[in-house]
UniProtKB/TrEMBL annotation:
GO terms for molecular function: metalloendopeptidase activity. Pfam families: Peptidase_M23 (PF01551). Residues 1-20 have a biased composition (Low complexity). This is Peptidase family M23. Residues 344-356 have a biased composition (Basic and acidic residues). InterPro entries: Cell_wall_metabolism_enzyme (IPR050570), Dup_hybrid_motif (IPR011055), M23ase_b-sheet_dom (IPR016047). Gene3D superfamilies: Glucose Permease (Domain IIA) (2.70.70.10). CDD domains: M23_peptidase (cd12797). Residues 1-21, 336-356 are annotated as: Disordered. It comes from the Archaea. Residues 197-289 form the M23ase beta-sheet core domain.
Amino acid sequence: MPSHADAGGDAPASGPSDGSLLDRVPDPTNLALVGLLGLPSLVSRRFEFLEPLLLCFLFALWPFVTMLAPSRGESPASWVKTGDRWSSARFLLSMVPLQVNPFVQTQGVRQLLGHLAVDARYRFSLPDPESFEGPVTYRLPVEGEWTVVGGGHEKAHSHSWSILGQRYAYDLVRTDGEGRTHAGDGTDRSDYYCWEEPVVAPAAGVVVAASDGHRDAPRTRGWLDLRQRDIRGNYVVVEHAPDEYSVLAHLREGSVAVEAGDGVEAGQRIGLCGHSGNSTEPHLHFHVQDVPSFYRGMGLPVTFADVAVADGPEDEPTRVERAAIRAGHRVVQRGFAPAPADGRGSEVRPRAIRVE
């Protein structure tokens, strides 16, 4: 479910590592692109001298290295019980045959190549929470209380730090008083508290892409769908401003209620939470990026207005006017109202409050 920074999908829901031994090591994932220079050696012996560069493709495995690296501390989302002790093993086992799924591999390569466009666009000075301030006021893309099981503004909490489009993405589930994401043994999709819960537009905008018809994965508890055709499953992309697009993924098959060209208001239902695509249990994937393309987008750090936030399973949610949420937070949308226009076509944004 929450991603361990694989090629755009979602992995077992242990949450991102907080304090990994590799947190301070520069991310070498983009060095995999150097492997492209070695491709001519595969078609002509004239370029045999470039063959060693093919080894650079191994840098694409870096996200898995960080996933398996030991942690110095406990994840803030460790209280969320998203599976049994074998869930991670099931995820790793299903990842092996998934490597021959042409749809998944093509999307992974396209995302990696998209990093070239992102770096060129920003000249290697990527948006971060300190430098980015967009014009849109966001609400949570869900109703009621949900739990952030993966994601945040910091590298240690990131959904997928290595995948630039999803650097500031979130995975959201619903939990009970004991931190469980499901009733019973969790073998059926309907056991999960977030299954078929409404997913809503996080701000007003225009739908630029919507896809339905992808099956919901038949298995849960760590297993990935080996027959997936799109790591997003069923999804919706909404343009909220010229450089801000929200992506809502893993929606329930047959639930997408909008299509490209539709205008939507903040809080309008666009689908239901599902289990489609690269998902190990029902959940909602949400992120904001700077262009409509899933492959060439740069993830943007956003905050949420009029939410109540609790850190962990026991605290009572406290309302704040604007919060930067992260893994381990329980969040509830309150009385959201878009900020008034400031006369320049953008919205006046209240001061952001970081909830630690």
